[in-house]
Specification:
Chain lengths: 139, 139
């Protein structure tokens, strides 16, 4: 999907592409594929790849170490994605459309029938502090 | 060039695509085209488009308002770009390759013969505090 979208990865990136089913064993329904381009103390950029209908489950990024928590901008590159954000509701993103999620704000997202590639631009990414609503989720 | 690379912009983004000759009147040699996706207090993401052989002149992003200055990751999407970074020298980036420039570090970059599209992931972008080495440059 990434190559079809004109997105070039290095060999190392292809080898380290992450697939997660969030510990639920239902990858086709609840899961995410991602490649992390950069994740410094200040800035993170990733490509998120979603299979058709695949959902990333509800979660938030709380304040940590005196920072207000992770701020994320999701930009749809291909396909479509429905993003739900607490206080805003559902936002449908088509290619070229984006939405910025404030820190510590519950959200989830689900790809449309064609799947989706979503660029994520954010502050530092820390899986260990993300809070998922479903206590069975493991990351 | 952006459409050829599979990069979709909204109408507003196409209308606000910025072209700068840095006040030198030599756009084909010294200049930059860019679209800013997001620029919050914490995170900025842009696409930089360079014509064949076009150069963005030497500059640095100094500390401002108690922050250490802008940190930038340049990721080459198409074409090629030669990036010069103080303390590191010249780095040639091909599609899929990237380099992270620390804050307050002099750098310049020039596209190869095919031009280049470069994704920039950074902390907040502020044109007004950027320091160019050539005092004739205006931004």
């Amino acid at each position: 999907m990434l190559a079809d979208a004109g997105i070039v990865l290095t060999e190392d990136e292809r080898a380290s592409l992450e697939v997660t089913d969030f510990g639920l064993g239902l990858l086709d329904e609840i899961g995410l594929q991602l490649v992390v381009y950069v994740n410094t103390e200040r800035v993170c950029a990733k490509e998120l790849v979603l299979l058709p209908g695949q959902t990333c489950p509800e979660h938030r990024h709380p304040p940590v170490d005196g920072s207000p928590g992770k701020e994320e901008t999701f930009r749809c590159r291909t396909g479509s994605v429905t993003l739900w954000v607490d206080g805003r509701g559902e936002v449908m993103l088509q290619p070229g459309e984006q939405f910025t999620i404030p820190p510590d704000t519950l959200h989830w997202f689900r790809a449309g029938d064609e799947g989706a590639i979503v660029s994520e631009f954010s502050t530092r990414s820390r899986d260990d502090t993300t809070v998922f609503t479903d206590p069975r989720v493991r990351r």
